[in-house]
Amino acid sequence: QVQLVESGGGLVQAGDSLRLSCAASGSTFNRYLMGWFRQAPGKERESVATITWSGGSTYYADSVKGRFTISRDNALNTVYLHMNSLRPEDPADYYCAASQPLHSKHWSEARYFGSWGRGTQVTVSS
User: Fold this and answer.
1) What torsion do the CA atoms of 108, 57, 63, 80 make, to the nearest 10 degrees?
2) Contact at 8 Å (CB) between 100 and 11?
3) 87 partner at 20 to 30 Å CA-CA among 14, 38, 63, 97?
4) Residues near 2 by Cβ (< 8 Å), separated by ≥ 6?
């Protein structure tokens, strides 16, 4: 099973950018479908973005399309979430997750991701 550690969260102003990183260890990283999820206080965990093992296909939640970009570097065992134009509705704990290959219809479903990091907090001031 892969171990995941997120970093890069912090406090930014609305409109700013932030890059989250997720370092993986313990298993063959390039076999995994990787996803970013987020959970705000009092809300359910929601999918943000997903990327295939090759990086060739991605999924984005409608709320972040055009603003966030998911990418991965298999040589560094790291997946990134580049967040631009941050909005007051984006603050949350952001989690990195890994899954065995999935049909794309499941890419936004947290229950299919078996390995999770502990999260990194993103705060946006308006």
Assistant:
1) 90
2) no
3) 97
4) 24, 25, 26, 27, 29, 32, 98, 115
Q: Which two tokens stand for residue 90?
A: 């984006």
Single-letter residue type at 126: S
Mean of per-residue pLDDT scores for the chain: 95
Q: Given the structure tokens 């229950």, which residue do they identify?
A: 111
Report whether 2 contacts 27 (CB < 8 A): yes
Structure tokens at 120: 């990194």
Task: Render pLDDT for 86-108 as a digit per residue (tens, 0 to 9).
Answer: 999 999 999 999 999 999 999 99
Q: What is the pLDDT of residues 15-68, one digit of tens each?
A: 999 999 999 998 787 789 999 999 999 999 999 999 999 989 999 999 999 999
Would residue 72 be called left, alpha or beta, if left means φ above 0 and alpha means ψ between -120 and 50 degrees? beta
Two structure tokens written together for 94: 């952001």
pLDDT average, residue stretch 117-124: 98
